[in-house]
Every structure is written in C-alpha cells, then in structure tokens.
Amino acid sequence: MDRHIPFESLANFRDLGGYSTTDGLRVRRGRLYRADSLGKLRPDTPDWDRFLALGIRTVIDLRYPWEIDNRGRVPADPSFAYHNLSIEHRPYDQPSLGPEVAPGPYLSARFMEVAEDGTREIAQVLNLVSQAASSGEPLAFHCASGKDRTGQIAALVLTLLGVPAETVVEDFTLTDRATPALLADWSARNEGRTPAWPAFGRAPAEVMTLFLTAMTTRYGSMDAYVTEALNLDAPTLRRTLRKGLLEPAG
C-alpha cells in the first residue's frame, strides 16, 4: 500500500496512522506525519494550502542547522510551532560512497551512532511527540529525504506504540517509492550528476532490521533505551503515546 500523501514539492510525506499493534489496536490517522524536507514548501501554493489543511501544530526538523541554512526551513506560520532538533552528530556523505559499500551494515551502524550521540535531542523529540499525543494535535517530523533520521524516529515511536518490528521495517522501506524523485532532486541540485553510491535514496529492509537488532543487543529493548540512554520514564511515555495515538481497530 502506498501511504504517501501527494505533494508537488515533497516526495516522501506519509501518515503513520493505520498501522496495527500487537495487542489489536491501531495508530490514529491524521496525528503523526513523517516527511522529507518541509523547507521545499512555499507559501501561496497548492502544496502550502494542502499542508496547512492537515492541521499540524508542531513541526520537528531533524536536520543540522547548516542544512537549514543551505536549503531552508518550513515557512513560519502562526498555526504551528517549529523546533530544530539535530539528532545526528557525525555527518557523512552518502552520495560520495563507493558501490562497494553495502547499505545494510553501513547505514545501520550510522543509525546506532545517532542513537548514542543524539540522546539529548531524541529525548526532546519524544517529549514533543508525547505532548502532541496528549493534546490531540497533529505533529510532523522530517529530515532531508525523510528516510534515515526520520526513519529512526518513526521506528522508535512505532515500537513504543506496540507496532511489530516487521511493520516498522515495512514502513522504513516505503521510502523506495520516493527514490526516483529524491534522485531527481539531488541531480537537479548537482548539475545533473548521478550519486556515486547506487544505494543513495534507497531504503532496503536490511537497514532497519539490522538497526532494530543492534538496539536490542545493545539495550535489551526500546523501553530500556528510553530509560537508560534518554533518561525518560519509559512506562509513562509509552502510556501517554498509546493513550493519545492509538484507537480500537475495525
């Protein structure tokens, strides 16, 4: 199923609603969105009207400040609060990687770096998601392509909600539907060149599978990661997220 919401300027905007949990509940639609860079939106366009119509009250930008300086941020609007929380601390250049670099082991290792380096920012992200869940107000989070940093936050939230690992992996791989547009966007910004890395813009299942396995090996569970690494009250956070973001299935 294609969960992408169509925009002219965005390739990877998706509603996380509709996923089933292991205990028979379902993530509410229209409450939690993941996306590629909302800095591509422009006021007074159909895309901007479509975005505002979703009623989003919180936008979390997971990019580095220098990315925002270079590529822009979502236009300011009184209808939502904007937060820049850069969860990645060790930048790397995916387009320049060689074809010998296997995406699964490479990207899952980068994801683990983010999980360990970005604890302060990730905790803030989860607190904002929790606040939005409590208030019943829609929230969107994004990075540049809506794949890696965005995928990690989506995986963390979905896991805390009780969505099974195979569904979390499936959600990650849906970026592949946006890969042609992401590649075209990169080429347009780089004089028509093609990235050296054949895996650029792709979201193989192995990446998320290896990351979830590594998190379990390192911390024991996502709850333990939240408690030990993020210094948050995992049971309280889980209850808040589930109360605000889940509904009966059917």
Summarize the structure.
This protein has 250 residues and is of the alpha/beta class. The protein has 10 helices and 7 strands.
- The number of strands is 7
CATH topology: Protein-Tyrosine Phosphatase, Chain A
The CATH class is Alpha Beta
Overall structural class, as computed from helix and strand content, comes to alpha/beta
Helix content: 40-55%
Instruction: Tell me the domain tally.
Output: 1
Give the CATH architecture.
Answer: Alpha-Beta Complex
CATH superfamily: Protein tyrosine phosphatase superfamily
> What is the percentage of strand-forming residues?
5-15%
Major sheet: 5 strands, mixed
C-alpha geometry:
globular
* Computed Rg: 17 Å
What does the average pLDDT come to? 97
Helix tally equals: 10
- In order across it, which strands form the biggest sheet? 1-3-6-4-5
Would you mind describing this structure in some detail?
Helix content is 46%, strand content 10%. The protein is of the alpha/beta class and 250 residues long. Strands 1-3-6-4-5 form a five-stranded mixed beta sheet, covered by helices on one side. A two-stranded antiparallel ribbon has the order 2-7. Helix 2 links the parallel strand 4 (58-61) and strand 5. Helix 6 (165-173) packs across helix 8 (205-219).
Which keywords apply here?
five-stranded mixed β-sheet; globular; alpha/beta; single chain; two-stranded antiparallel sheet; Protein-Tyrosine Phosphatase, Chain A; about 250 residues; 10 helices; 7 strands
